[in-house]
Automatic annotation (TrEMBL):
Keyword Nucleotide-binding appears in the UniProt entry: yes
Domain annotation Mur ligase C-terminal: ranges: 334-453
GO cellular component terms given for this protein: cytoplasm
Species of the source: Salipiger profundus
Keyword flag Metal-binding: no
Main location: cytoplasm
Subcellular location: Cytoplasm
Name of this chain's protein: UDP-N-acetylmuramoyl-tripeptide--D-alanyl-D-alanine ligase
Ranges of residues in domain Mur ligase central: 105-294
Signal peptide segment: none
UniProt binding sites for ATP: G107, S108, V109, G110, K111, T112, S113
Family: Belongs to the MurCDEF family. MurF subfamily.
Length: 477
């Protein structure tokens, strides 16, 4: 299906074309480009113009450029003054022509998992467009919009930030009918003076709301009054969710099991019972926020609750898997909680709570009892309080139920030093060094959490744990 004709793309961007082509997708990466895509030659770590010839050779329909690369047929180019601005205009044009009801999501924690919950819940009642990854910045938002077909029923746009002033223009580009803030927590404190400053930046998502739009906010936070004030200034309706008395969508009881979380509450002025198929109180809370979004969109409540129960987190975001350690004795296994994509104090605390509630199995391996073990890496961009915030994890209530804590990075060394001797595992400066140890550290029956900021590359520890696994005898591998 054609997403952009040459004529339509030129009109959207104000660019110049010398030939006729049709694009059925938009890409910024030659490694993942699909035949028929429009390649956008952004300048990031490297200049995308250096890869235009490769993109066209790999099947791209055309390329969005600000100059004609040497040896490239001009008939397959859309030439604009500035490629980033051209991508933004393409996204704005896609937003203008769609019939979709648009949902914008931001928050210090849980943006991407909430986006995926929304994809599942809204997808049960219509067609949905959302980015396949965490595309939430100055190029990710317009790229997601530019890829949006005109005839989808819903779109979910994740909006993030690293510095003040980034969210409002992205929200104005997305023009959501419903805008949701999951939580405001210490993150990016290196760029903000206080948690209140982060709340005001997150609340700026409401500046892009369509007339008559709805704001959905977490009502449990110290900064919830800031969010409520900003929401009221731009939204026709404000719905708060949480566990606090008086919230419109309220959790009254949460039961965190080994494989799922069951929640009870009140919404739409009636009792509700719902499940998410992953352990974690924070998943239940964001799930309640998703149900509030569904309510704001006028969707069927029963279908929304049923769909929410089918959602599973993606890789690196709390995904759980069993690692089989013996091909014959298949009961010899450990459980991996892969949450290695990102970390800040709030998300790490939530993950520790999940680990503390997990159920190891005794009497299976070299160690007499199954253990709760975590590998945790530095939390980045926490500003002046970074050392104190790392040390404070030693006093987190969930630490009582965790057996061994392995730490990666110079900041996590502060936690390692603050831990009681009996819980202190290894400390290494890099994830590579820690990954080399996991085979000696783990045993059958253990439950293992891996968590850290993306730059700490804790995914290497996850990969090392997965490499411990074997296929069952007689299987296909």
């Amino acid at each position: 299906m054609t997403l952009w004709t040459a004529k339509d793309a030129a009109a959207a961007t104000g660019g110049r074309i010398a030939g006729n082509w049709d694009a059925n997708g938009v890409s910024i990466d030659t490694r993942t480009i699909a035949p028929g895509d429009l390649f956008v030659a952004l300048k990031a770590a490297r200049d995308g113009h250096d890869f235009v010839a490769q993109a066209l050779a790999n099947g791209a329909a055309a390329a969005l450029v600000s100059r004609v690369p040497e040896g490239v047929d001009p008939a397959r180019l859309l030439v604009v003054d500035d490629v980033q601005a051209g991508l933004e205009r393409l996204g704005e044009a896609a937003r203008a022509r769609t019939r979709a009801q648009v949902v914008g999501v931001t928050g210090s924690v849980g943006k991407t998992s909430t986006k995926e919950m929304l994809r599942t819940v809204l997808g049960a009642q219509g067609t949905v467009h959302a980015a396949e990854k965490s595309y939430n910045n100055h190029w990710g938002v317009p790229l997601t919009l530019a890829r949006m077909p005109a005839d989808v029923d819903f779109a979910v746009i994740e909006i993030g930030m690293n510095h003040p002033g980034e969210i409002a223009p992205l929200s104005r580009m997305a023009r959501p009918h419903v805008a949701m803030v999951t939580i405001v927590a210490p993150a990016h404190l290196a760029a903000f003076d206080s948690i209140e400053g982060i709340a005001r930046e997150k609340g700026a998502i409401f500046e892009g709301l369509e007339p008559g739009g709805t704001a959905v906010i977490n009502g449990d936070l110290d900064v919830s009054p800031i969010l409520a004030e900003m929401a009221a200034a731009h939204a026709a309706q404000v719905i708060d969710f949480g566990e606090a008395a008086g919230t419109h969508h309220r959790l009254t009881e949460v039961t965190v099991g080994d494989t799922c979380t069951v929640a009870q509450g009140r919404a739409w002025r009636t009792p509700i019972l719902f499940k998410v198929a992953v352990p974690g109180r924070h998943f239940a809370l964001n799930g309640l926020g998703v149900l509030a979004v569904a309510h704001a969109l006028g969707l069927d409540r029963a279908l929304a609750i049923a769909a929410l129960g089918r959602w599973h987190p993606g890789a690196g975001r709390g995904q759980r898997e069993v690692i089989l350690l013996d091909p014959v004795e298949t009961h010899l296994s450990l459980e991996l909680i892969d949450d290695a994509y990102n970390a800040n104090p709030a998300s790490l605390g939530a993950s520790l709570e999940v680990l503390a509630g997990a159920r190891p199995r005794d009497g299976l391996g070299r160690v007499a009892h199954g253990r709760r073990i975590c590998y945790i890496g530095d939390m980045k961009e926490l500003g002046r309080e970074e050392i104190a915030l790392h040390r404070a994890l030693a006093d987190h209530p969930s630490m009582r139920d965790i057996d061994v804590v392995h730490c990666v990075g110079p900041l996590m060394r502060e936690l390692w030093r603050a831990l009681p001797q009996e819980k202190r595992g290894h400390w290494t400066e890099s994830s590579d060094k820690m990954a080399a140890r996991v085979r000696h550290d783990l045993d059958a029956g253990d439950v293992v959490l891996v968590k850290g900021s993306l730059s700490m590359a804790l995914a290497r520890v996850v990969d090392a744990i997965r490499r411990m696994g074997v296929s069952p005898a007689g299987g296909n591998g």
